[in-house]
Specification:
277 residues; alpha+beta; Jelly Rolls; 5-stranded antiparallel β-sheet; 7 helices; 21% strand
Length: 277
């Protein structure tokens, strides 16, 4: 894969020369791909995980699904299409914590939003086979805090969400559908519907592939009809945005608490500590 390097300097007059002022980011994408991401709001990465690496993530999520069986049962019985969404994955299994600085994703995030970013959360979504309406999601977006009209100095929220699929996206599991460019529609809200929209694009990737989107890109999931679909969801924001409200507080005895005792500056920042004034 073609790469290029970005050289960042953080202009901080209060702490000149401090650790983290200069960043070199080896971006796992071309300049053309980054421009496409900026224009359309999404970027596809094939085969990020293969073989043993892919199976390791599947096994870790399957173990978690078994441990949190009550949540799984409630999701199967629900009339909603969101499925089972376990959260705080890095606190629950080392296999997920090892992804904290996964450069094929993180480097692209830093190319789009700068070096000072945090992991807003790592969750999973598991959907189970069922009828059309029960096991799909309507059009939605993830950063729904834009006023209309937009004030002159409004601070537009930016977020990169990465969907890593542990199963093939096909007619049995259900693809993901996006409306290219909709992340820039600051004067519109997503319609509460499952119906197709003009200009929509259906995306299918093989297991181990990923789809990166801007958090405000309009998207929906097609129904899971005949085979379970497992996915991981990384959410990245600038360091100064507050933690996601979804999923409540992380476990008090979570793996990240021990990890942070010896974490370096970059690791602490990614986990929400530091990186802002």
């Amino acid at each position: 894969m073609e790469q290029h390097t970005l050289h960042y300097e953080i202009l901080n007059v209060f702490h000149p020369g401090e650790t983290g002022q200069y960043w070199d980011v080896d971006v796992h994408a071309t300049l053309e791909e980054l421009q496409q991401f900026a224009d359309t709001g999404y970027l596809i990465r094939e085969e990020l995980f293969q073989g043993e690496a892919l199976q390791k993530l599947r096994d870790a999520l399957d173990r978690l699904e078994e441990r949190e069986s009550e949540g799984r049962a409630a999701a199967i019985a629900s009339k909603q299409g969101w499925g089972f969404i376990p959260r705080h994955l890095m606190d629950k299994d080392e296999a997920f914590l090892e992804l904290l600085k996964f450069q094929p994703i993180l480097s692209i995030v830093r190319a789009m939003m700068g070096p000072l970013v945090r992991l807003r959360g790592l969750s999973a979504r598991i959907t189970y086979p069922g009828d059309d309406r029960q096991h799909q999601t309507p059009w939605h977006q993830h950063m729904r805090v834009v006023p209309n009209p937009v004030p002159p100095w409004f601070s537009r929220p930016h977020c990169v969400d990465c969907f890593i699929y542990l199963d093939d996206l096909n007619e049995d599991t259900g693809g993901v559908v996006v409306v290219p460019g909709s992340h820039d529609w600051l004067d519109k809200a997503t319609p509460s519907t499952y119906e197709p929209l003009d200009g929509e694009v259906e995306i299918r990737v093989k297991a181990g592939g990923a789809v990166l989107i801007h958090g405000n890109l309009w998207h929906r999931a097609l129904p899971t009809l005949r085979a379970k679909r497992r996915m991981l969801i990384f959410g990245y924001t600038p360091t100064w945005l507050r933690r996601s409200p979804h999923g409540g507080k992380p476990p008090e005895d979570g793996l990240t608490q021990t990890f942070l005792k010896d974490a370096d500056m970059e690791e602490r920042m990614l986990l929400g500590i530091g990186g802002y004034t």
